[in-house]
Amino acid sequence: MKTAKKQKQDAEKLFQQRFGEDVEILRSKYRDLYGENEKYFNDLVEIVKNAFADRKASLRELDLERLENPGWFLSQDVIGTSFYTDLFADNLKGVSEKIDYLKELGINYLHFMPLLKTREGKDDGGYAVSSYIEINPKLGNMDEFEALNDQLKKDNMVTCIDFVLNHTAKEHEWAMRARAGEKEYQDMYFMYDSYDIPAEFEKALPDIFPELAPGNFTYYEDIKKWVFTTFYEFQWDLNYKNPFTLNCVIKDLLVLLNKGVDVVRMDAVRHIWKEVGTDCSSLPQCYIIVDILKTIVHMVSPGVIFLGEAITSSHDVLKFFGTTYSGCQSMYNVGLMGALWNTLATRDVRYMSNCIANGPELPLGVCWNNYIRCHDDIGYVLEKPEIERLGFNPFWHEQFLIYYYKGDHPGSFSRGELYSYDEKTKSARISGTLASLCGLEKSLYEGDKLQAEYSTRRIILMFASMLAYEGIPIIYIGDEIATLNDYSYKNDVEKEVDSRWLHRPKFDWERANKRYNMTTYEGQVFQSLKTLIHTRKQDSIFHADVHTRVFDTWNHGVFGTFKKKDDDGFVFIANFTEHYQEVYTAAVKNVGFNGTMYEILQNKELDLNTEKISLKPYEFLWLKVKK
Ligand code: GLC
Fold first, then answer.
1. Which of 231, 237, 309, 429 to mutate to test the pocket of ligand 1 (most atoms within 8 A of CB)?
2. Which of 21, 115, 185, 611 could be joined to 178 by an S-S link, Cβ 3.0–4.6 Å?
3. Which domains does the chain have, with CATH numbers?
4. Which pLDDT score is estimated for 212?
């Protein structure tokens, strides 16, 4: 047995041998932010060294495997779900008992929504973290988390956790020390004696939660200071202009990674750098910080990837992508998410097709994180030029979508609620579960069987569209069993003002138990999704390196995409309307497909020599080149 001292020395030696070059790369990135700052840089290297020494053998083995296969997450096999631990399974121990349910669906990537210790009372759904290195005691403890990760790894499953790097709860030790007057900690936040600088900031800053938390600063009478609070008052923004902040945050992040985390969700990453006179969003320094973090993570735990959360235009989202070794490896595909909802409401696929056709090509080694909805509200983030090109007014079009999904537009099938309505701009986002937004709630309430059938088809169509696209698909738990909105949050004082709780219900196991009964909506959605997932997993045409191209189906109601790799090919044709539609096979032949194709979900042949393809309401086809 090696002594602890000897182990540390060995690790140190290995560190010098392996990372001499990486430390220099790190130094140059660090310089871009902080200039020459030997003291903090040396502290940082020390933090990295210690974390490297602390990494346990089983994780090191995995690291080596991933060094051989750095694109592990690009595989079509990776299918994710996100959930609040307490709502899904009460606590971490509960999750380990529910893994079979997830496996049954084909899930192997678990995004645990905020797990860390938060403030008491309102905590923004866990995003008001009071300690980065403690698990929320209501959910378990760090040993349990580590044990769960070990268990998941044996099953080839991966763990994603949120890292809320923009802010801490005002009850975090750093914030409390700042409040108690310790200068070193005050400098970790943005604190001002007068409103002069905040006033300058406010001139260009939008409100993130205009209804619930207007303004971006909060005044604290006891310390006579204004504090930067982009989100809620109880979430204090961290000041990364101070290299000490970065060191403290990195130190904690590495502790978490050494517990077996595989994917770090970089929460609200576009907000982490602030400059007066800007909207403090997606500034270049945000990327440098992420890049520094990734360089370090690559040393300590290679293969761990970053998922960036930036709910903004695709132009800004793109800025955060790096390569395998830099920046973020995956970003939320806000564009596709918004476009899917837009298409479902308008029954017109042109906007989505144009966005994909004119959208960015991702660099090699990174991929999208695809989703239909998540724990947050749906913000459409429409690409204005594309809307205008189709002859629509972006403002009025967004108003249409907002009220369509709220259920206030004539003919709407949806039941949603507004989120963050902004009186000034009339803008709002939408809350609601997938099933309720797709019409199931309304049709069941009205006892309209045909509409309920269409709603189910819409849900499945949304899943099929997401799974046909390249990147990591993430399903919000409960959507696989057509969970409806949960209005009970209105009776909870800590939640009533935040409509996002509408679509974060407690997981309903009774509902899940209906998943084998194909006469139920739960059964139809679950089994269809399961088939889609299992079909995708088996076919490398869905690997993230094989990009999706759109083609014109010559029918505005029908979406068409294809992928090609060597002599293999895939075509997705989807009717986004409740009417029967036809597509000329010539449209498919036009992009280079011929002869007979094979529908892989229905195990049916499709002869492209016939003139037309007929599609039932909301029907879609997953066609493969027949070999
Ligand atoms: C992210 C989270 C959201 C939270 C916000 C502030 O956007 O997804 O739920 O409210 O950050 O932490």
1. 231
2. 185
3. 1-76+89-161+243-308+323-329 (3.20.20.80), 173-237 (3.90.400.10), 549-625 (2.60.40.1180)
4. 79
